[in-house]
């Protein structure tokens, strides 16, 4: 049965707020994983750019005693070369966590706001974090 206009607007606001919170939770998880996995690349490229004489040319002791322009260039190149496999690894880690915790299934359709009596999708499928209760092989993300 359809909801009245006022109730439909309130439920729509609730569902939009919940979907935005789930989106930002996914975005925060993605940012944390990429930051941790890409930290070696960030450090290597940072030191390469900091010690190169044509870029920043820092007066730090490690730049004067250990890193000249050719070794700084090598660090920059190494950082960009190892970035590609680390991006793939970070994306694989995020996808496995999102699948394990069913993060993409927490998004609710807007039809829940329009009609009365519908249960929340995560409730129908066994709870918010189904990984605790066991894996349901009938629910697939790609179907």
From TrEMBL:
It is a multi-pass membrane protein. Its main location: membrane. It is found in: Membrane. It comes from the Eukaryota. The chain crosses the membrane at residues 20-49, 74-95. GO terms for cellular component: plasma membrane. InterPro entries: TMEM88. The keyword Membrane applies. Keywords: Membrane, Transmembrane, Transmembrane helix. The keyword Ribonucleoprotein does not apply. One of its GO terms (molecular function) is PDZ domain binding. PANTHER family: TRANSMEMBRANE PROTEIN 88-RELATED, TRANSMEMBRANE PROTEIN 88B. Belongs to the TMEM88 family. This is TMM88 protein. It comes from Eubucco bourcierii (red-headed barbet).
